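3.2 Worked example (two chains)
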Amino acid sequence: MLTKRIIPCLDIKDGRTVKGVNFVNLRDAGDPVELAAQYAAENADELVFLDISATEQKRKTLAALVLKVAEAIDIPFTVGGGISSVEDVAILLNNGADKVSINSAAVKRPELINELATQFGSQCVVVAIDAKQVNGEWLVHLVGGKVPTQINLFDWAKEVEQRGAGEILFTSMDHDGTKAGFANQALARLSKEVNIPIIASGGAGNVSHFIDTFTTGNADAALAASIFHFGEISVPNLKQALKAQQIAVRI
């Protein structure tokens, strides 16, 4: 049985870790390299770094941060934010990232997924999908959730798999930062409709939410931010609780 993964997520803005609710109202959560080292020591399975202020000028800053993180930890980590070309990805992987996450750029030019999978292998390519329910339909949103599209979540998930993505990071914007639980019905449907791993994101508030997303939602991994950053749940305690529920985790 494949183990379920616990993935702390660090949203990076101007070199600091930040966290908000429903993608807004950001507050400082600490130094990303220090947090990364802490989570690695606590036996987190992977880390995700998302540069939410990514611009052309800040690409070099992100690449430098990736190098520092790679030197500080010994677990896989994914980097995303403003990535739109094979060249962007090459720099980040060369600096020590294990995977990259692409979102808006993939929607705007889906061929990018094929190019990255061909150049670097599917195992390096995570497609992040931010979606929310609009009149009962899950629709994809871009640019940190600011720009709605008419693209159906499940149709897009199937397309990114066909184009070579190795994983999908699905964030429910309706649940993000609310600590009210993950979007398990949508996650369960995603896990049926695609054959690549699904990372659940948005809504983690307590241990039972993780149990639910691994059982009801059938997620392969669960990502969370503020509950880890602000010490509400520790990774070791969470894993022990999951193990007690017969959920396979790496202790």
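3.2.1 Second chain
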Amino acid sequence: MKKALVISGGGSKGAFAGGVAEYLLKEKKNTYDIFLGTSTGSLMVSHLALGKIDALKKIYTEVNQRSIFNVNPFRITNKNGVTIVNIRHSATLLNFIRGSKTFGESKNLRKLISKKITKDIYDAILKEKKDVVVTISNFTANRIEYKSIKENAYEDFCDWIWGSCNYIPFMSLLEKNGHQYGDGGFGCLIPIREAIERGAKEVDAIILETEVNQINRMPTKNPFSLLFTVQEFMMEHVEKHNITIGKMSAKQNNVKLNLYYTPTVLTTNSLVFESNKMTKWWDSGFTYAQKRNQENNSEFRPEF
């Protein structure tokens, strides 16, 4: 019986998913045949497929803005312990003058992917016959695409991972094979149905949002913050739609579906990467998964 681990998009909140995955793989001793991720989830699935939890934790607890952006569109300040995020207008203006299509550039992330998801890791996954799949949005063809490691050469697969993570227009636009690509979360933030269509009969899905809405956003102050707020609004509703479709698909195909939500709101800007916070989120993800499973699966019981 095939089993799948699915991880949603969520930027820096991926650290929480790492903690949950650590518990599922290390403590619960779960094994999976399919690893499917969107955006930050796509960064994680290669390491998880090989059980490289410690290496993945090191990445997610040491990453910062420079690890991701070669042109950072955000100015981050801390006031009285509160993180304040504004747009760096000068940086975005220079980026446009240089001919960029986006406010920021994430070429450093592409370098990080090649450095951390090596050819050896790629070859090892193929050897173990794990199906590692990433979700990406094809803006040119107006469709969601799922890129399997089994069907792509190493450099191409690294490109797809990078494209899946690029939150347009704040990060780079992937232009490949005559098409333009961006964050898979714009169309499918949590690809539960795709895992089922690939033959999974049990799915553990880590969703980097709370099950019930817990925030009211502050009024926007400029066009940039409004754009970010609108995109976050749309993606939250895309996620809810994905979950509904996933539940229906699970019921129709007699699939055991376990949903793991974040218990609290971790951040309102998932494009801010602060290693101290991400370290805490990783640990809280592990503790939360452990606690909930100890409570007789009261929260993580199958949906159907």
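3.3 Remarks
The chain has a mean pLDDT of 91.
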